[in-house]
Amino acid sequence: MNRIRIHVLPTNRGRITPVPRSQEPLSCAFTHRPCSHPRLEGQEFCIKHILEDKNAPFKQCSYISTKNG
């Protein structure tokens, strides 16, 4: 007589449970005055103050406009 094997899958079906993210993003780390803008992902500063971060992969543009000096 043949035996039938039944495999029971775990409840998560082999998927990794995602870590829940916090609902409120961290605020910008700008120190000269309070800034309530959210930080850029993986950075300490918001888009407005990102050039203050010396470790950020961005730098000031050297373009000078004739209209604003």
Summarize the structure.
The chain is mostly loops and 69 residues long.
Description:
- The chain has 69 residues and is low in regular secondary structure.
- It has a domain at 24-55.
- The radius of gyration is 25 Å and the shape is elongated.
- The termini are far apart.
- The mean pLDDT is 82.
Question: Helices and strands in order, then pairings?
Answer:
Elements: no helix or strand
Number of strands: 0
Whole-number mean pLDDT? 82
Query: What structural class results from the helix and strand content?
Result: little secondary structure
| Share of β-strand residues | under 5%
Count helical runs.
0
Distance between the termini: 91 Å
Low-confidence stretches: none
Shape verdict: elongated
Which key features would you list for this structure?
69 residues; little secondary structure; single chain
